[in-house]
Amino acid sequence: MSLSAHLPHLPLAHRLADLAGEAIRPFFRSQLRPDDKADGSPVTLADRAAEEAMRRALAEAVPAHGIIGEEFGSERADAEWVWVLDPIDGTKAFITGKPLFTTLIGLLHRGRPVLGIIDQVVTGDRWAGVEGQPTTLRGAPVKTRECPHLQGARLSTSGPDYFTREGKEAFDRVLGQVHLRSWGGDGYQYGLVASGGLDLVIEEGLKVHDWAALCPVIAGAGGVVTDWEGKAPTIDGPGRILAAGDARCHAEAMARLAGG
């Protein structure tokens, strides 16, 4: 299948982001009370309303496609085309009024991410990536920053508490080498890698709805997203993600994560 075959799905992806934004916007900074899910993470009416809106649109536009959503599970997850939805990635930021949460919309083709949207409804930042095409931010092409070595790198992660003990030890080996460190941002920080504000994001324990949209966005801007061993992330993998704007910096970070 040619790379251009994924482009017809891009307008639908933008429509999904628009619908999610319409559902989310009225709840932002509204003193909305969250609920706790079984794993202790928060969820709000805004999360659920946004995913429901996207699912309705997909059922109408592409009923044969599958869906994997954070809030309402999977439908036809073995389909050729599967949409991966995270209506509010960064719910803690959302409920505290920080405009760093994002809506993540990914499209898998036979299990491989080929399209991604990272959308921040408050700021209007929207990164769109399609395999084989330049990534855009607000419709304009963007590129990652050249950063050949860790010593000059800007590193971010959602927070040090999200790592296992072993993962934190590996992360600290990279952290001790970089020029600048930053905490927080969830999916937003990956958009910043694509547009050159950050050079590295390292995380552990991510689910497919956390990373599926990120891969095409960063790849289309010239970057790299793998697991900590340099392999493509998989749905049943441990969710150890290493995203970098420069392949040389990625290689150095991967060596440090491995103990080098």
Task: Write a concise synopsis of the structure shown.
With 260 residues, this protein is an alpha+beta fold.
Task: Give your account of this protein's structure.
With about 260 residues, the protein is of the alpha+beta class. The protein folds into 2 domains: about 5-140, 2-Layer Sandwich (Fructose-1,6-Bisphosphatase, Chain A, domain 1), CATH 3.30.540.10; about 150-255, D-Maltodextrin-Binding Protein, domain 2 (3-Layer(aba) Sandwich). It is built from 8 helices and 15 strands. The strands form 3 sheets. It has an 8-stranded mixed sheet with strand order 4-3-5-6-7-8-9-10, with helices on both faces. A 5-stranded mixed sheet has the order 12-11-13-15-14, sandwiched between helices. β6 and β7 (about 110-120) form a beta hairpin. α1 runs antiparallel to α2 and α5 runs parallel beside α7. The longest helix has 17 residues, at about 45-60. It is globular. The N and C termini lie far apart (about 40 Å). The relative contact order is 0.14. The model has no long low-confidence stretch (mean pLDDT about 95).
